[in-house]
Specification:
The complex is a heterodimer of chains A (about 350) and B (about 375).
Chain A (H helix, E strand, L loop, with lengths): L16 H4 L1 H8 L2 H22 L1 H4 L8 E2 L2 E2 L21 H37 L1 H16 L2 H13 L5 H32 L2 H9 L3 H13 L3 H22 L11 H12 L5 H28 L15 H18 L1
Antiparallel strand pairs in A: 1-2
Chain B lengths: L8 H4 L4 H4 L6 H10 L1 H18 L3 H6 L5 H11 L5 H13 L13 H36 L4 H15 L2 H15 L11 H8 L8 H8 L2 H38 L2 H8 L4 H9 L4 H26 L4 H10 L3 H29 L6
Classes of the chains: A mainly alpha (about 350), B mainly alpha (about 375).
């Protein structure tokens, strides 16, 4: 059985709750390089989230602001002075749009991933549990969408939903739903595979004997067990959501600049600037995307590697750092091995 | 993207009956069943796109709405048959597809098949170039990272890989353009060739549409150089995206095989470390690598849309963006069908290659 990710390791049950929290337990388990990557990812992601929360305080201007008390902003002004990172061809302040862009990104990620988890998990549970023709049809449809270039699926969805024009909420919903359609097959696949495995477990049969209804078995017994890998997929998909949204914006199927700051759209506008050597309109929103995605990916990948006993760096016994940590790691490794075979 | 790497999807479903049975069902049967599975994939995508596109209205209103008075619009819609029930139109469209008739584009009135052939070759050229870059960069570096696991080179390479696939391809393209085309002036900014060489190459007898191939065939060295110079930046931009994925993939799988006994046995026989990594450890790691590489074709085609727009590379992706903006649904459907066929056929080939390399895949 191959799920995309390995099983969330069970931390030492005797450790205090704090040490068993997902990221903390991973941090304790990591060594050297891996710890560095995890920490770098954590720092970048935290910075991203904090920027989004405090955007109103951090940004010098509004995302759609074109003038202040001194008059209109100049167009394509080089970085410096009143506009630390310069202004765009439309006269927006680049720094402000980069900062406000974090809010848009977070909103889209949260809405998109939550929706796809919700729908994907339900479909996966039902499909895996009930099986039969329903299962076959859903699998073939999910596979077809999964195999197809995700950006194209998102574009088609974006056109269907918004038809081009978009307000803030409409634009975010359109972007989020487009991304959702791309992600549902992934969640569906993982949950379905887990459900099929769990369906054969004795505790499901026990529940049946006791007389639990199908819905109860699905929603309590299987659901709880099948969703252990989801936090990890969430991290990995969050970065993909940002890339998909930026791609949509870059092709002109994203959010209008007056309703929200969106990095992809800014890059689209900046493309024409590059030939005349104007770099600041594109480089900064681009860097924002790269840093956010790299942060999320570093975090997700480190957690993934730490969950995978084959890839986890081993603590050297000689370093004297053994003790409960490496013990827990070893246990988790065995557990992961057992439950994934 | 990253989740793909450890999940060859064809394994997880249990959809392929021959996989489940440990006895019976030879390679021939496996290939046949796998081949038949191509059709539902294409069929589903065609159906989805057809109905999704029609939800937004008929193509003529979308293309001409506002520019024509309502009576004329209605007349045109009736003439084109778009006022009939959608199911009738759907089956008619399927019937046309079956006979290879993709229709005529609405915005520039061309045969869709001819349009696909013209721009498809440009996309093919870009994809080949990018795959070459990805292979040359990703695979050797992945081996280095695996061999020097948890040391400085590994750390640097892993971060490099993450940055590679964390960078949107259009941003990478923009940076490359700024650096090498605008500031250094070494390479052209956009396009596939200079106008003069483009004219020469397209006026050849039966051109392949792949410019460097045409240039070689006609022995036109100046044009060849020009075409090559234009190809570098788009290929690197799109290639690096995939190189990151290749690097990570090769690293993970070679780490797995490097720990095996036969590698240790090879080492004790005095096989050189270089050979151990590139032959003994790499070869058995190939199956997951090939599977994921096949899946990358979808990522590549998606990336091609963005790369082509960035570099004004007149391929399918560039045209797709143009047609989408013009709401030319006939053209969009044509392109989507072609891409669906490419993806489905690639996945088929990948599965077959994997089965040929490792007989266990089937059982």
């Amino acid at each position: 059985m191959s799920t995309p990710t390995t099983v969330e390791p069970a931390a030492d049950p005797r450790a205090p709750l704090f040490r068993r929290l997902p990221v903390i337990s991973h941090f304790n388990k990591s060594v050297g390089l891996q710890r560095g990557m995890l920490v770098a990812g954590l720092i970048l992601t935290t910075a991203f989230v904090l920027t989004a929360i405090f955007a109103p305080l951090l940004a010098p201007y509004g995302y759609a602001q074109l003038s202040d008390a001194d008059g209109s902003f100049p167009a394509q002004q080089a970085p410096g002075g009143k506009h630390l990172l310069g202004t765009t061809v439309g006269g927006y302040d680049v720094l402000s749009r980069v900062i406000w862009g974090t809010q848009t990104a977070i909103m889209v990620i949260v809405v998109a991933v939550l929706m796809s988890i919700f729908i994907g998990v339900i479909l996966g549970l039902v499909s895996g549990y009930i099986g039969g023709w329903l299962d076959r049809i859903l699998v073939v449809v999910a596979d077809a969408i999964y195999a197809f270039p995700s950006l194209l699926v998102a574009i088609v969805m974006a056109i269907v939903i918004s038809g081009g024009q978009s307000s803030l909420l409409g634009g975010i919903m359109a972007a989020a739903i487009s991304i959702t359609v791309v992600f549902i097959p992934q969640y569906f696949r993982v949950i379905r595979a887990e459900t099929i495995r769990l369906k054969a477990e004795p505790f499901v049969e026990a529940a049946k004997v006791v007389g639990a209804s199908d819905i109860r078995i699905m929603s309590r017994h299987i659901y709880k067990n099948a969703t252990r890998t989801l936090p990890l997929i969430f991290t990995l998909n969050a970065s993909e959501a940002i890339l998909t949204m930026a791609g949509l914006g870059f092709l002109g199927f994203g959010i209008e600049p007056s309703s929200a700051a969106e990095w992809g759209f800014d890059l689209k506008q900046a493309l024409a600037d590059t030939t005349s050597g104007i770099w600041w309109t594109g480089v900064f929103p681009g860097l924002a995307i790269v840093l956010t995605v790299v942060g999320l990916t570093l975090m997700g990948e480190s957690i993934n590697d730490l969950n995978d006993p084959r890839l986890r760096g081993r603590k050297k016994a000689a370093s004297g750092k053994g003790g409960p940590d490496s013990n827990a790691a070893a246990k988790a490794g065995i557990q992961a091995e057992v439950s994934s075979s | 993207m990253t989740t793909l790497i450890e999940a060859p999807p064809t394994d997880a479903d249990g959809l392929l009956p021959s996989k489940k049975k440990s006895s019976g069902g030879g390679l021939g049967q496996y290939i046949l069943i796998r081949f038949l599975l191509i059709f539902p994939t294409i069929f589903i995508l065609v159906t989805l796109v057809f109905f999704l596109m029609r939800i937004t209205g008929d193509p003529i209103t979308a293309a001409m709405g506002g520019r024509l008075p309502p009576e004329q619009l209605a007349e045109r819609i009736t003439a084109a048959g778009y006022d009939r029930p959608i199911l009738v139109q759907y089956f008619e469209y399927l019937g046309q597809l079956a006979t290879g008739n993709f229709g005529t584009t609405l915005s520039d009135n061309r045969q869709v098949t001819e349009m696909l052939a013209t721009y498809g070759s440009a996309t093919l050229e870009l994809t080949i170039n990018a795959l070459l870059v990805a292979r040359l960069v990703g695979i050797p570096l992945g081996m280095v990272a695996a061999y020097r696991r948890d040391h400085a080179p590994d750390a640097v390479l892993r971060v490099f890989a993450i940055v590679c696939y964390g960078t949107p391809v259009f941003f990478a393209g923009m940076l490359l353009k700024l650096t090498f085309a605008v500031w250094l002036g070494w390479l052209p900014v956009a396009g596939r060739a200079k106008t003069s060489s483009e004219l020469e190459l397209t006026s050849l007898q039966s051109p392949t549409g792949i410019y460097w191939l045409d240039a070689i065939r006609s022995g036109n060295m100046a044009a060849l150089g020009d075409v090559m110079a234009h190809a570098v930046l788009p290929a690197v931009a799109l290639g690096l995206l995939t190189a990151g994925i290749f690097l990570r993939l090769v690293r993970t799988n070679v780490i797995g095989t490097l720990g095996r006994d036969y590698v240790e046995a090879g080492r004790s026989r005095g096989v050189s470390e270089f050979r151990l990594v590139t032959k003994h450890a790499y070869k058995p790691a190939l199956i997951p690598i090939i599977t994921v590489m096949g899946l990358q074709i979808a990522v590549m085609l998606g990336g091609a849309v963005l790369t082509e727009t960035t570099f004004e590379w007149k391929g399918l992706g560039f045209q797709l963006a143009t047609y989408l903006t013009a709401r030319d649904f006939v053209a969009v459907q044509g392109i989507v069908v072609l891409l669906a066929v490419i993806v489905a056929v690639t996945n088929f080939i990948v599965d077959i290659v994997a089965a040929l390399i490792d007989p266990r895949v089937r059982y």
